[in-house]
TrEMBL record:
Coiled coil: none annotated. The modification O-UMP-tyrosine is found at Y51. GO terms for biological process: regulation of nitrogen utilization. This is Nitrogen regulatory protein P-II. It comes from the Bacteria. PROSITE patterns: PII_GLNB_CTER, PII_GLNB_DOM, PII_GLNB_UMP. It comes from Sinomonas atrocyanea. PANTHER family: NITROGEN REGULATORY PROTEIN P-II, NITROGEN REGULATORY PROTEIN P-II HOMOLOG. InterPro entries: N-reg_PII (IPR002187), N-reg_PII-like_a/b (IPR011322), N-reg_PII/ATP_PRibTrfase_C (IPR015867), N-reg_PII_CS (IPR017918), N-reg_PII_urydylation_site (IPR002332). GO terms for cellular component: cytosol.
Amino acid sequence: MKLITAIVRPEKLDSIREHLEAEGVQGLTVSAASGYGRQRGYVQVYRGAEYSVDLIPKVRVEVLATDKHADEILETIVVAASTGSQGDGKVWVVEVQDAVRVRTGERGDSAI
């Protein structure tokens, strides 16, 4: 099993969700995040005063997938999240040793 984690622009969440549902993904976890990459934030002017925004709002999307479907899901997220601009985000995949469905006690791929 693989855990696919994506840190992306908040406005791309609906697109990602729609693409994943079309791919047959039945569950995902979404949480608010903030941070920066190469762009290092930005400077904004409010009522004549300049201030620096160092941490940019992002969304963290996590999907647990079977080894068989992980690459397809990874590519789906990348396509759905891409704007072609700096700050689109990152996606990474880590190996998951085991998973358990709490309600039934199912383990491994059947827990997904």
